[in-house]
Amino acid sequence: AQVWAVGDQLQHDVFGEGRVTHLFGSGEKISIAVKFSGMGPKILDPRLAPIRRSD
Questions:
Q1: d(Cα 45, Cα 24) in Å, to the nearest integer?
Q2: Strand order in the sheet with 41-44
Q3: Dihedral of the CA atoms 12, 13, 14, 16 (nearest 10)?
Q4: Among 12, 5, 4, 2, residue whose Cα is nearest residue 38
Q5: Interior angle at CA 10, CA 46 and CA 27, nearest 5
Q6: Is 30 helix (H, G, I), strand (E, B) or coil?
Q7: This model's pTM is above 0.70
Q8: What span, in angstroms and rounded, lies between the C-alpha atoms of 29 and 39?
Q9: Using one digit for the tens of pLDDT, what is the confidence trace for 18-41?
């Protein structure tokens, strides 16, 4: 499983480039808040969302 941290850059198949701003929960029940350029923040389930780290 991918481990996410605040500040990580990621790529979303629909929303494009984003940056992790908050983490909610822990372990298997984690959600991440991501700020995408040109839109407001989104809360994503990293197990379901089409995202990958972009360094």
A1: 10
A2: 41-44, 31-36, 16-24, 9-12, 51-53
A3: 50
A4: 12
A5: 30
A6: coil
A7: yes
A8: 25
A9: 999 999 998 789 999 999 998 989
Query: 10 and 19 in contact (C-beta within 8 Å)?
Result: yes
Q: What is the pLDDT of residue 3?
A: 87
d(CA 25, CA 11) in angstroms, rounded, equals 22
Residue 29 token pair: 């029940």
Other CB atoms within 10 A of residue 20 CB: 20
Q: Alpha-carbon distance 47 to 50, whole Å? A: 8
Domain boundaries, the chain: 9-53
What pLDDT score does 21 carry?
A: 97
pLDDT band for position 1 (cuts 50, 70, 90): low
